Amino acid sequence: MLITLAIILITAGVSIAAFKNGRLLEKLILWPPPIQSKREWWRLLSYGLVHADGQHLLFNMITLFFFGSAIAQLYTARLGLLGFPLFYASALLVSILPSYLNNRNNPRYRSLGASGAVSAVMFAYILLAPWSMIFVFFPVPAIIYAIAYTAYAVMAQRQGGGNINHNAHLTGGAYGVLMTMILFPSAFPLFLDQLAHPRFLGL
């Protein structure tokens, strides 16, 4: 819980500061030109500390709060105190890489927000507890939400347009599932067993 809260507090603090300080936002946002020319590689991580607005920040941090504690406990037990922060940071990097590589020569491309890493955490949780109930306007089983979320993201990504990086959400979610299966080999057999024996649980 404390590790998750620390990430939330740091992200919220930096995001709120960036709302009021345009120079800070410009220094942290993912923007290809300074990465390519000035080697400002930190932007591949720091973009997750800033958000477009309060609603964007609130949605990501609430989602991270609900799912992060359980996954943090799991990764801490396996990898130590740095386990979950490393998982979260690597999810930020991996989730944005496809978009960055596709736009590395596009000076108009910008990306910000922790959604890719948050998706990694959420989908790792869904892998471990597919029949847990997620409250999104109304209660829905986690696995059903995952299917609907993925289908929507794939469709939206294909249609293009908008300011949401659906590809980062999908890549982050896939990374969260893959890393959890690698570190915890029993996770996938357990997932299949739970799918075969539905048991609806509160989050």
Largest sheet: 3 strands, mixed
Would you report the number of β strands?
Answer: 3
Given helix and strand content, the structural type is: mainly alpha
Count of runs of 4 or more consecutive helical residues:
10
Low-pLDDT ranges: none
Name the strands of the widest sheet in spatial order: 2-1-3
Relative helix content? over 70%
What overall geometry do the principal axes of the alpha carbons give? globular
Radius of gyration: 17 Å
Strand content is 5-15%
Reading the helices and strands in chain order gives HHHHHHHEEHHHE
Q: Kindly state the mean pLDDT as a whole number? A: 89
Q: Give the terminus-to-terminus CA distance.
A: 15 Å
Topology:
Layout: H1 2-20, H2 22-28, H3 32-38, H4 43-46, H5 54-79, H6 83-103, H7 115-128, E1 132-136, E2 138-141, H8 142-159, H9 166-183, H10 187-196, E3 201-202
Parallel strand pairs: 1-3
Antiparallel strand pairs: 1-2
Helix pairs in contact: 1-2, 1-5, 5-6, 5-7, 6-7, 6-9, 7-9, 8-9
